[in-house]
What does this fold into?
Amino acid sequence: NAGVMQNPRHLVRRRGQEARLRCSPMKGHSHVYWYRQLPEEGLKFMVYLQKENIIDESGMPKERFSAEFPKEGPSILRIQQVVRGDSAAYFCASSPEQGLGQPQHFGDGTRLSIL
Amino acid sequence: GENVEQHPSTLSVQEGDSAVIKCTYSDSASNYFPWYKQELGKRPQLIIDIRSNVGEKKDQRIAVTLNKTAKHFSLHITETQPEDSAVYFCAASIGDYKLSFGAGTTVTVRA
It folds into this structure.
């Protein structure tokens, strides 16, 4: 059973460009969570999605950041007009159901570097 | 919102000794407390979790204890080995699905 798949593993962008991060949940999982991790810090919740629905985006910056989880295909975290402060590791996690009856399993992350 | 504090931030132990990491949380409604291990450049991996209806849980060399009254929980690693060296994160649930993470503890096991 393949784990949570994220790509790319590393992404380099120049200031002002767009960054697209992809996450395919574990097979059978329908809940996706995005987290951001700054160097030597913990994981900060960004957004929780189910298929075609954003359930909670309280951790997302108000501007430039968006997320989707379409009916078909991976979840996408999009960052428009990137700035240096967006440099971080972005992790995706998935779980099979709400209520934390099942734990969240993480992908390998995307390390975003802004030049 | 939930605030999770984790101590110590770094921990160095001799191989074979025990390691203990402590976390406190603020939201009395939290009912799920996972621990993750993250090696350098890799994904956080769930190593053990505990729910609020249980006071202690053990899995081989790893154990977690929970004191709901005091709102703190701890990770205990016994007979530490070099491969236990990693960053360990505690987390507490917020509502039905969110997790609030501690800042992490860097554990170094000296051979």
User: Anything to note?
Assistant: The two ends of chain B are 41 Å apart (CA to CA). Residues 30 and 94 of chain B are 6 Å apart (CA to CA). The mean pLDDT of chain B is 94. The longest strand of chain B covers residues 86-94.
